[in-house]
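Researcher: Next sequence.
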Amino acid sequence: MKKYLLIFVACVIVSCDKKIEVDSIFVNAHVYTVNPDFEKAEAFAVKDGKFVQVGTSKDILEKYFSNNIIDAEGQTIVPGFIDAHCHFLTLGELQQQVNLVGTKSFEEVVERIIEFSNTYKPRYIRGRGWDQNDWMDKELPTKALLDTLFPNIPIALTRIDGHASLCNQAALDLGDVTLDSKIDGGYVETRNNQLTGILIDNAEQLVMNNWPKSSKEDLTRSLLKAQSICLSYGLTSLSDAGPDMFTTPWIQTINLIDSLQNSGDLSVRLYMMVPGTEVNLKHYLKEGIYKTDHLNVSSFKFYADGALGSRGALLRKTYSDKKNTFGLPVMSLNEIESGAKRIANSEFQMNTHAIGDSANHAVLNIYKDVLQGKTDRRWRIEHAQVISPGDFELFDNIIPSVQPTHATSDMYWAEDRLGHERIKGAYAFKDLLNKYGKVALGTDFPVEQVSPFLTFYAAVSRQDINQFPEGGFQMENALTREETLKGMTIWAAYSNFEEHEKGSIEAGKFADFIILDKNIMEVSEDEIPSIRVLKTFIDGKSVYAKDNLAK
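Model: Next structure:
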């Protein structure tokens, strides 16, 4: 550190008048630039929110001067992480709900609801995060106990993947849900000619369309809470894949985000996938792409199917652990194809949730059909989770947007769902990378945890944090550390048409970067999950420091 201070003093005395003034200079760092040659550097200069030059400490200090020289003391610096698929607003909303992540039984779910109710005395209760696959009894729960304990308070508990909810009778009554209730793209579960309270995929709308809407103040609080969490993990850009279903007033929410970014309250950069409803299609296809330095509204999000964990993923052959069950289409193929044709005649991207092999097969072929003769459209498949052997070829110009922690969360039971042969085409990140040449990596939080270090670890080790299974899960589809870092930075930026403005530490790009407490490219794999962000910078300004970590 003293060496660089001495150089700085000498520069002031001798020749600063011949140097270029910048806002800040970072020296003595271990910088992974993620530029086209994946070069390393020691230092960089920042002015007006952008990198001016990247190189050695000596070269930077000889050419530039600043009143703000930061000695990184050998710490690792990488570009700010970009989460290519998450639910940013939902994360913030979850902070104001019952957190059911990690529950080991339905009894524990109920205990958390009782504690929440006793603490906050709410008129309505929402919760999220339960997963029956983590319980001893892996059957979907029923509403019976909730009806007994909470006969007058509507309760809606969303499964961790967002594709199923358990509602008590008071909540079902909000949507007039009966044994005869039907809805396209979802179903109301019954047993012994009685409602269980389980609503799958679009059936959740029956209740949620009648749930009290969040106020502007509630949404603002949720957005700021989500930002605080994300910045602490070094996430400087996020691709929000929309609300769980289509109940959030997305146009108003995007306008609120824009105003909060303009006021400086919201500093993270957001790429917003607009749900592909008729209202949204009409509005944004007429208005066109909206793009600022911090907000990118240039894509529509469609849903081809549900999730594997709740057996809503659409499969070409029956589920191995539940015969004559194939999943279900959340949106009809006609709806997806019609939307694709309209979007193909615009400049917008189309991003479609597809989990099962049937859903992926159908969407890939729709994409291929409507994009004939159109180049560099960068349409995306979100999740691309189960792929038939012959369909990998169809990813030659379709971006796979995948989430490595899904593999390590699902690996305990995924083969039960899919069988020995079909599982070979699942979570096949390396195969997808080899076909397209890039993969955009995300977390899908709050379905998974926010930490990008868990994403990194899952991609390279294919293990859980207890190093299970020994040797890794289907290691032929593991990614290298270089591929993983690219997938979380420059390739994620590319998937949003933003690779020329961020995703790497290069002159002319936004100065979004993070300082880590360990070298993510060199530490042992089992240390990766415990890496911490020391500082997060957006536009060259510190927006998070470890000592200020929000609890």
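Model: Residues 66 and 234 are 25 Å apart (CA to CA). The first helix runs from residue 2 to 14.
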